[in-house]
Amino acid sequence: MRRKSNILPRTCFYLVLILITAIFLFPVYMIFVSSLKTQMEIFTSPFSLPKSIEFSNYIRAWERIDFDRVLLNSFIMTSIPIIGLIILGSMAAYVCARNQSKIVNMIFTLFVSCIIVPFHTAMTPLVKFMSTLRLSDKLFG
After folding, report:
1. Residues 126/135, Cβ–Cβ less than 8 Å
2. What is the CB neighbour count within 10 angstroms for residue 41?
3. Across the chain, what does the average pLDDT equal?
4. What are phi and psi of 47, to 5 degrees?
């Protein structure tokens, strides 16, 4: 009996989750579909499927920006910090899990409190600082 009474709330919960997922994925879908259209098709019928698939937009974007270099820079600038973060994070997690002293608990609380701080709160001053040093739009900036 308990199982039957649980079906309706669970169904409603999953329907709400599906709706939220659709709302978040709709812009991604629109960007992808629009990337396969000509400019005229985008302006005349933005919500329809493309009449003919155009890959010229991708070719033009690849040629206009030096995409090879940009992709390599992005790979270098993300892979090195991620590897370092995995190594340091796993070592810190090991210490936090094995030691139960007050200092380790304070450090763990500091880690958790840093997660709570919104990303933009730390990123905005950092971008201004990097611009002041003229390091923005550079490989190591």
Report:
1. no
2. 18
3. 88
4. -95, -5
Which of 59, 39, 64, 61 minimizes the C-alpha distance to 50? 39
- In 10 A of CB 133, how many CB atoms? 10
What are the Cα distances from residue 77, in Å, to 65, 69, 71? 18, 12, 10
CA distance 80 to 44: 44
Q: Which residues lie below 8 Å from residue 76, measured CB to CB, with a gap of 6+?
A: 139
Give DSSP secondary structure letters for 77-97. HHHHHHHHHHHHHHHHHHHHH
pLDDT band of 88, cuts 50, 70, 90: very high
> Among 116, 90, 117, 95, which residue's Cα sits nearest to residue 105?
95
Q: Considering only CA atoms, which of 67, 63, 43, 41 is closest in space to residue 54?
A: 41
